[in-house]
Every structure is written in structure tokens, then in C-alpha cells.
Amino acid sequence: MHRYITALLAVASCASMAHAQTSPPVATIxxxxxxxxxxxxxxxxxxxxGAASPSVDSANAGVRAADAARTVAGxxxxxTASATAENVVGTGPYRGFxxxxxxxxxxxxxxxxxxxSARLAVAGAQxxxxxxxxxxxxxxxxxxxxxxxxxALAAEKRVTIAEEQLGFASEGLRIxxxxxxxxxxxxxxxxxxxxTEVNARTALETARGDAAAARxxxxxxxxxxxxxxxxxxxxxxxxxxxxxxxxxPFEVEGTLALAAARADVATADAGVxxxxxxRVPDLTVSTGIRRLQGTGDNAAVVGVSIPIPLFNSGRAQxxxxxxxxxxxxxxxRLAVLEARTExxxxxxxxxxxxxxxxxxxxxMAAAMEAARIARIGYGQGKFEQIVLIDAExxxxxxxxxxxxxxxxxxxxxxxxxxxxxxxxNSGDIK
Length: 430
Fold this sequence. Notes:
Blueprint: H1 2-18, H2 42-51, H3 54-73, E1 80-86, E2 101-110, H4 115-181, H5 187-222, H6 232-235, H7 256-278, E3 283-292, E4 297-305, H8 315-379, H9 385-419
Antiparallel strand pairs: 1-2, 2-3, 3-4
């Protein structure tokens, strides 16, 4: 079987040289269907998806919550008003209210140790983290839309391939029937061709179902139905990031992942500061006036109270905050290692997929020529049917591999763009 394919490829190469045909560096996978109306480009899809996204809405709600938390953190303790009546409803001279002492006072807690500024620091750090979440949600949404768009394009490419394969199978069945009718071949050839045609028809139905599901997934992600063609030319095009060999190392410090990890460390640092401030007891100052009913006199009442840190000195809370800070710092270092690994892997995947996509051009040209020669030769009785079947299968596999290569290239490029997305400047997220 392999000898037949090798021979066909050699014949194809000789025929190509004889007719001065040249293979393009990157072949179009399959001819894109001509559709009415403008194509939905990836940029269009990104704009549509960013208009109304639950994930972005959720992140924006987190920003509003963080802003409210900062307002709450800046509020001072409320004063307390109290009124007490003493020496009433007793016995003897205290049976009524004639000897009562009524006190009306106002108490005001005074925070010490910088508690309010520490709370504001925690709220500010959480606000920065919440705003980073918005940027991260937008970047994740762009990646999700891009990957879904790529899957939809690849699915529609496979539909076109399946349609052409069905056409080839139908033509092969017609040729087999003609040859059987003239007695040039066995009826078994017609049965094989019929089975191939049924399989091709089933594959086409499967491909159409997959394409409909992929387009529906894209519509759900964009929040509106998509009834226009997709940008097939973009799918067949290799952009940047397609070089060969190892990629240059990328500095991860300016990426979104590291910005989020640093924001978590800053929040943990502020938490340590708040825990330290909580160890300083607060004062409560009170002042009021007392009415002595028995003599008709009034007197001022002044008091100061301070809690005694006998059972809870705040040491445990401080230890907890410091442990959380150490945890955040360890996660930041881990994020650096993971980002470097993932970026390196994505760079390698981009380069490998680009190499496979480039190689698909000459391979597809040879496979198409081999299949053409096999169809002509089988129709003329020069080749056995198995040669035609192998040539058609090789062409189908080559086309499917090309679609997979281009899809893998665009997907890896999208993931690399997400991993290397630059974090906003600190002044832009405060």
C-alpha cells in the first residue's frame, strides 16, 4: 500500500515539474466558500463579546464593593449616648423619685495605634486587586472568545473538507459502477465504493453537527446569534510568532499574573499592619451631666475607660496575618515559576504549530496531485481501486492535519498573548 502511495507521489512530482507548477509556501487548507455579506472577523467578535459579559460585570461589581469597603474603612467609631437613673423605686426615702440621680452622658471611642489608616491601607490594596480583576476578566474573555472563534472556523473548514470528500467518494462510486457495467472490474469494487460514499456522507453530517455546535457556542459567548460567515482567510494566515527554534525568554514581571500576585502580597502586608494596630487598646472618653433630685443640684460627670488586654492581646491575630503574608509571598514566587514555564511552553507550541502549518502546503499539493492521478488512473483501468482509496484517504488525512495545525497555531498564539498580557500601570488602576 505504501509503495503505491510513494509511486503516486513520485508521479505527481514529475508531472508538476513537467508542467512547471510550483507549490506555495503555505497552501490554503480548502477553498473558502463564497458567502453573501461581510465576514465576522475576530476583532468584531471581541468587540461584541466585551459589550455584555457576566464575568466582566462580576469584576466591575467587585470594584464597586471595594470602593464601598474603602468608604467604610475610613469611618470613625460612633459616639454613644446613655441615660441612667439611680436611687429610684427603693425603700424608705428612695421609694419614689425624690432622691433620684439622673445622669445623661456621651461616650466617644478614640482609636489609637493608627487603626483607621491601617484599615484604609487594607481597603486600598483590596481596591487595586479588584481593579486588576477587571483587567484579568477582560483578558480571559478575549482568550475565550478567540479560542471559540478558532474552534468554529476549524469546524467549518472540516465541513468543507467533508463536502469535497463526499464529492470524491460519489465520483469514485460512479466510476466503479461504470467499470462494473462494462465488465472491467469486479462488483466488489462497486461495493467498496458504496461503503466509502456512505462513510463520507456520515462524516459530512457529523462535521455539520460539530460546526453548528461550535457556532452556537460562539453565539452564546457573544450574547447574540451569529448568522454571517467567519473570516476564513484569517484562519489560513500565519502571523507573528511562527519562527523556528527556541524562543527568547520573556520577562514575566510585567504580566497580569504577576501583578495579581504582587497585589495579593500588598494586601497581606496591609493586613499585618492592621493586626499590629489592633494590639493597641482604644480609649473611650465620656462626659455628661448628673441631676441630683434631692438637692436640685447638677454635677458634671467625666470618665475614661480602657480595655485590659488580659485574655486577648492580639498576638494570635498578628501571627495569623504574618502567616498569610508569607503565604502570599510564596504564591508570588510560585506564580513567577509557573508563568515562565507556561510562556515557554506556549512559545514552543506556537513555533511547532507554525512549522506544521507551513509544511502542510507542499504536503497538500502532493496529496491532491496523487489523488487526481489515482482517480484518472482508476477510471482508465491502470490502477487498482485500493490505490484510489489510499490516495483519497491520504488527501483527507493531510487536509485534516492542516486544519489541526492551523487551529493549534492560532490557539497557542492566543494563549501566549494571554500569558504575556501586560499589566496596567499602577496609576491606571487606583
